[in-house]
Amino acid sequence: MAGCSRLKLIEIKAPNVSSFDFYHEYKQMAELSFQEPLQMKDLRVSRPGAIDYALGKLPSIMPNLETLSLGSHWLVMNTPTAPRKFLHLKHLSLYVEASPAYDYLSLVSCLEAAPSLETFNLALPQQHKEINSIIGEDPSNLRKMSEHNHTKLKTVKITRFFSAKSLVELTCHILENAPSLNHLTLDTTIGFPRSCATIGRCPTFGMDIMEGRRAVSAVQEYIQCKVPPTVKLHVVEPCSVCHPLEP
Hints:
The protein contains five helices and ten strands, in the order ββββαββαββαβααβ. An eight-stranded parallel β-sheet has the order 2-4-5-6-7-8-9-10, with helices on one face. Helix 2 links the parallel strand 6 and strand 7. It has 247 residues and is an alpha/beta fold.
């Protein structure tokens, strides 16, 4: 379901629904009401405040969720701690469109709310010009959250990774608190495959190439040293063919 700017409430009375997609980009939030949501395994929701909504309400009304995709728009406040947990959630995907002041380290709340989580995908939109970049920061100044143990987490991918200090801190937190992690992908591009060999140039869609290079530098300076030998780190850099470094 998508659109419907005046929509205020969606009631679903089908007890056997196991998968549902809801896209609502308007600031007036439409509420979802499921009569018997125990069979729901796969839910995709895109709406303002989607992450706060999911953490606050879904664990109690959809306790058997296994796959959850959230698109959160106009995110200003940091992500709160979840009052309950998704005990069966294994796959979590987030698209976070946030203000420049947003603290990405607060997304640890999402990981903490899903003790069975195995895969975590985080996609970010075009970066703001006002980035609190970590470049030049003393590594000893990176924040650490109280100890968490994301024991089941195996695969993490961050698309449009950039040099924001709190995003680097989130990545370091995952490396230090996910003992089963074996794959970490940090994609500093927009996530599209390289296409310079087929169409002549890789698409950028407004991507800041210089910020992409700062992101690579942030990985090299602050993250690589924390990668254990059991984790395969894959860093996707801006295309050197389409965007060669100036001599």
